[in-house]
Amino acid sequence: MSENITGKIARKYMAHFLDSSFGGATPSWYRIGEDLEEFSVALNPDTEQKKNILGNSTFVHNGYEISADAEPFFARVGDPLFEKLQGIIDTQATDDGCKTFALEVHLWENGSAEGGTFVAYRQPCYVVPTSYGGDTSGYQIPFTISYVGDKVKGEFTPASGNTPASFVAD
Fold it and tell me: Which of 13, 62, 98, 146 could in theory staple to 107 by disulfide, Cβ–Cβ 3.0 to 4.6 A?
């Protein structure tokens, strides 16, 4: 990070990572986005509004079914996320075989021109390839991220030199 952010926040400062170790002893944070022109997390709120015979309205919010689609995702030899996605495809893994953590990092909060730490939220998720193959532009494995469980707030420190990126919960 080499600048202080003010005013309108550019999209690149809302960073999305996946733990490409998928449950390994040490998380390996992989930033999503190299091939994506758009990436949005859909909250999919489960709400209902009713009106009774007296004319009174009620509103019930039952929570969220949060998900995101990453398409395209181009396979690259040596890429740790590609290797995991290919393993899921090859073994047709389900349930915990697809479980990892997602990390959202606010690169506009905290940090500084010299680096530092940033506000981040970690949440368990399932990463499920939706297809594989593609056209002549390259081998593609689009996938869906289904967020589950509670978000945990903490601090993210970007990778620096030989030091890997890290997340520490508050």
Answer: 13
